[in-house]
Design goal:
The protein is of the alpha/beta class and 256 residues long. Helix content is 29%, strand content 29%. It has 7 helices and 12 strands. The strands form 2 sheets. Strands 1, 2, 3, 4, 5 and 6 form a 6-stranded mixed β-sheet that branches. The protein has a 6-stranded parallel β-sheet with strand order 9-8-7-11-10-12. Helix 2 (108-120) links the parallel strand 7 (98-103) and strand 8 (125-130). Helix 2 (108-120) packs parallel to helix 7.
Amino acid sequence: MARSYRFFVTDLKDFEENVTLSGNVEPEVVEQLGKVLRAKAGDEVVLLPTGIGRGSGRNESDQKYFEYVYEIASAHKKGVELTFLKKVENENELDFEMELVVCLPNKPDKLSLILQKAVELGATRLVLVNGDFSQMKHGLREDRLVKIVKEAAEQSERATVPEVVVGGDLRDFVGDAPGGLLVAMERAENKTLPEVLKSVEAVSPISILIGPEGGFSDEEKTLIEELGLTCFSLGKRVLRMETAAIVSLGMTALMR
């Protein structure tokens, strides 16, 4: 049975023709197909133009995204020959911008999980900030973060690769943030997220802020209140930050 693989690529310019991948053209894809996955002739490969955020791989005149389907003619460690089959519209993107702003957690594995699930749920931009209670003790490797997001976009059959931004300090970020920023506030006597979303126009961008373990500090809560940002509740129970991020994005993606 033929298998199917998906990759975002950067070196290719002309997609609607037969393609030869080599050590000079998409070497990472060659490594995956020829060495790791041991792809065989007859397997299917879907290639998508890499871009950041909305617009990558999209025909701006009709607001559509496309991907390109090939059959492997031959695959070995030094090169892969692909036979072009068809161009297909990818309809897996949300019809609005959905940004996740998340305070850095205490462990890299937790951050990886949050990024992966955010991509799967349709986030178009991922912003990482330092909150007062953030406890990340490891340096952020932006290349690693981008790789996690790219692989999650391939796995979930996205048409675009979400942008990853290391946004500095939470206080600075919220001070410059637009008024549409929605804040998940633990134990807050606020409207629920579904109630808040009803008041937001259907195609308007949505930006959701999730605090770190331990929540927001008193000073951060005061700043959020002074700025007039909209806070929402996810229920009576206190959720882990990764759960709050997943639930918030999932609700937003389904209700808009």
